[in-house]
Amino acid sequence: MSTFALRRIVMTIPVLLGILIVTFVMLRLIPGDPCRAVLGERATDEVCDAYAERYGLNKPITEQLIIYLGRTLRGDLDVSFRFSRPVADLIVERLPTTLELAASALLFATLAGIPLGIISAYRHNSAIDVGTMMGANLGVSMPVFWLGLMLAFFFGVVLKDTPFALPPSGRLSAGANYPPFYIVWGIAESDATASSLVIFLSRLNILNSLLTINITQLLDALRHMILPAMAVGTIPLAIIARMMRSSLLEVLRMDYVRTARAKGLSEYAVVLGHAVRNALLPVVTVIGLSFGALVSGAVLTETVFGLSGVGRILFDGISARDYTLVQGITIVTAISFVIINLIVDVLYGYLDPRIRLE
């Protein structure tokens, strides 16, 4: 298994390098000047010349590419044109929000989608099957921004002052100030003395609440994440349910399933113990791809629910022709996809022992 993982990691190096080069070239092919996109009416010729000199935009594109690749390989993502801050700091600040949203949405989609798909396949052509698939088709068809607004209106306005009300925006309650785990544990005294990794982990509110055993923060973070997770997780839920249903239907028709039933095994053992495990292979692929897509940024969901994640800052970066910011988020997203694909491949070997990863 370790040999397989190492081989896959080595194989991804040229892929990541290709992504860096393609992103670099495509951004510079987009019409528009970063100086005028950021400064607007203040962008005189003299100011833009100084701007280009400051960020090295007046150099030949090949020289810019070599400098960019050298910095990236050293782990330096440069400084954002728009925000005048290191891109790494912006990612550390915004990525936890997106990761928490992506994980919550995918957990909701998986826990609901797989059982619905199993029930639909087992009760094939029944009223339950038809109703579930109609719901799945409806879930795929609903725009995320519309669903998010409807959920925020219903749970934040219609059900206001009731036990079922949910916060329509933000990650924590207004004015909430929960101590990060590195202060509670005595690892560091403040953000200034803590490492970027420690700060990054502390900004995952759910993880931070578990590390500090803070039930109040945990419940607060979960309540704020319910509506965004439902909004962005509805489409993956529908896809997972449909994929699970079609895959399980195919498996249930196989000879070994009929043999298991002929041997007298219970339906529970036949379906969940034999069929579902093999039917999960394509579903795992869908789950992995869905998580990768969510990590790249749910722009509309983050905007509707007031979440400062990667999606919103990526949109701002593209609008402002902020090359360094877009490139930094792209490489982080690409690495996330590589890690997710590696995990999916390892799960293949666990779910189906016939697949030899070595």
Q: Strand count, sense and closure of the main sheet?
A: none
pLDDT under 50 segments (min length 5)? none
Structural class computed from helices and strand pairing: mainly alpha
* Overall mean pLDDT: 83
DSSP strand tally: 0
Using only CA atoms, what is the Rg?
24 Å
What is the terminal separation in angstroms? Answer: 6 Å
Q: Encode the helix/strand succession as letters.
A: HHHHHHHHHHHHHHHH
What percentage of the residues does DSSP assign to strands (E)? under 5%
Percentage of residues in helical conformation? over 70%
Individual helix count: 16
Tell me the overall shape. Answer: globular
Give a structural overview.
Helix 5 crosses helix 9 (196-202), helix 6 (127-141) crosses helix 11 and helix 15 (310-319) runs antiparallel to helix 16. With 358 residues, this protein is mainly alpha-helical. It has helices at residues 2-29, 34-39, 45-55, 61-73, 87-122, 127-141, 144-158, 181-184, 196-202, 205-211, 215-252, 255-262, 267-295, 299-304, 310-319, 323-351.
Spell out the blueprint of helices and strands:
Layout: H1 2-29, H2 34-39, H3 45-55, H4 61-73, H5 87-122, H6 127-141, H7 144-158, H8 181-184, H9 196-202, H10 205-211, H11 215-252, H12 255-262, H13 267-295, H14 299-304, H15 310-319, H16 323-351
Helix pairs in contact: 1-16, 5-6, 5-9, 5-11, 5-13, 6-11, 7-11, 10-11, 11-13, 13-16, 15-16
Quickly list its features:
73% helix, 358 residues, 16 helices, single chain, mainly alpha
